[in-house]
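Homework help thread (please don't just give me the answer)

Our assignment gives two proteins as sequence + structure token strings and asks us to describe the second one. The first is just a warm-up. Here they are:
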Amino acid sequence: MKKYLFVPLIGLITSHAFSQEIDISGQDLKLNLGGAIRTRFDLDPDRDIEEFGIDTVILNGRFSYKGLSGEIEYRLLGGFYPYQYVDNIGDISFPKKAFIKYAFDNETTVSLGLNQVPLGLQPFFGSTMIESLGYTMGIEDLYKTGVKFGKQFEHHHVDLGYYWDDAWRGEGTSNGTYYSNVITEADAYVVNGTSYKERNSSVVNYTYSDKYQDWNYSIGLSGYYAHLKDFEQNKGSRNLLGIHYATNNDKYGLKFVSFYQDVDINNKLISLGGYDGTFNMATKGMFYSLDLSYKVPQKYLNENITNWTLYSNYSLYDKTESDFKSTQRLVLGSSFFLNKNFYISTEWLFGKNDPYIGGSSYTQSLASGGTNHWENQLNIDIGYYF
């Protein structure tokens, strides 16, 4: 089936780079319009894959007027691997974010709309383009529709969120036409798929930040609770409890995130979807992510190359069910800016029972497991930001 062409990678789904924008400014009003065109090269000799094409077209905008601000971002895909099953760019499309934010002062904000759910380290758990398994599980880089309140107390920061709905559904061929992976009805090709929807999510995130000599550090806790209901009116809940830690200086960085997940339904697995595909996930287990990075000092670089970073990220979903195989991911990579407008990343991806890497089962790897051996592939991403 065409959906299994989706298996190789969602790839290039993050925005670690920012666009160069068009500024329209008045005395109090600022409007910034921008976007990006990202290309991607996939190499997987074990599956005879050697593909290059347009990965994503991004359109975004930001505005600010006194204490009021807002952001919107929309993504378009299609026509190239792994979305060659549709004809054109834009046949698959969805919003990433669309929200307004009001700052009462420098310490207090409220955001309304399609905004990031404050789970763990924000905005990402690590340095990679593909992100950690936390994204695959619908924990990292998660955007939903709701309201978020943020408050800074000297070294302490608290986010409280209530999300009554998922992200706005986009266009595509699947039930998973979202930027983030969210609990949704499985497509017909997913064996033992479920039809749950996640609603009325409550979240709290606390972080303490400080500095010791030339090292910045932060440590915190996150909690999440949501209601679940399927088409047969079976009910349940999703519970997440996590810790996070990060430290860095001008060269070295370390990030660690861990979550306990308990999806309380009468099933050992539940279906998620995003980027025009759906798959199953084990309902209970522990997630871990460890990210190490090194930023090459600018004095060693050509003036046209900036922010060259070397990084590695290891993530694990250790499932509670004894006969389910653990899912693991290891990423070795580097990224840099060229002439400010180009963002280039190269990542060697290793996965075991990982739905996004190699030929392991896309629909079952995050649940009961897939091939249960290490797969690998190479991804090179080149993005032009305008």
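The one we have to describe:
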Amino acid sequence: MSSDLKGHKKKKSIGFRFAWNGIKEVWSAERNFRIHLIAGVLCIAAGAGLRVSTVEWALLIIVMAIVITLEMINSSIERVMDYLAPQYHPLAGLVKDIAAGAVLIASIASLIVGAFIFVPRLITLF
């Protein structure tokens, strides 16, 4: 194996390790991330139990990934703003609020998608 290929594989594994460290950090530090991730696991369990279609699975996975990704971006923005503006600054607060608003919009959209998929199935059960 060439040294270029070995170096490329090593860079990929280092990149994956950094990404995994980021996920672990957000898990340990951010309560909302844990809530969203647990909600995603419950959604997967409900999807399996209620036998959702392939298209419905795709929609559920997409909205879950969007919410979790935005939560991680929001956490990153919060940390950057705390670093740049250790003392309270209205603009830093506004930036944080906007990022949190993005998570809220995605969360509401995911709840709506989940309702469209799960509510009809749950109604037929009862």
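TA reply:
I won't write it for you, but here's a hint about the kind of observation we're looking for: Residues 52 and 117 are 8 Å apart (CA to CA).
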